[in-house]
Write a structure and sequence with these properties.
Length: 179
Amino acid sequence: MTTSQNVPELIAAAQAKAKLFEQRIAEFGAQGQEQDMAASGADDLNAAQVGLEAATVDLFTLFEARMQHHFRRGPFSRKLKAALVEAGQGDLAERIHAYYLAVNVLKHGAGASYRELLDMQVALFPVHRVAAEPVDSVDSVGAEPAQNTPSRRIDVSVPGFFDGLATTLLEAQGFLESR
């Protein structure tokens, strides 16, 4: 039987996994500048972007699950943000909230979180205005992004996105554990 990893170990493991996706995306970026990518190259790039998005959602979800015990029932991220603001940690509160919204957009597509991110004008990562998703990139209901198509709203492939998420979660974990 193996021992359960603590939050910093889980974040480090997720960062290592994300680095592989980031390296692959960077390789495709260099190739794309030199020549047009073949269809298989575009598929590989999409796979790397989707993998990085999934790693982002998984890490934030895991963090919430592991840290939920610090609050009674209810929306973890809202309670964490309020606790941080109350403790004078406004910058960390805003970063946590921005990443929370980004994860919601990655999971659910357009909606309240997306509109809030657009209104916030987040400096941590690019948020793109998208008029409408192409028909083949949404499910039959038309609300949620397809699992094999990268988000056009949040660009997790920009340098520093995942490391910024990891750092923010580690700071929030430290805050919660010290309370």
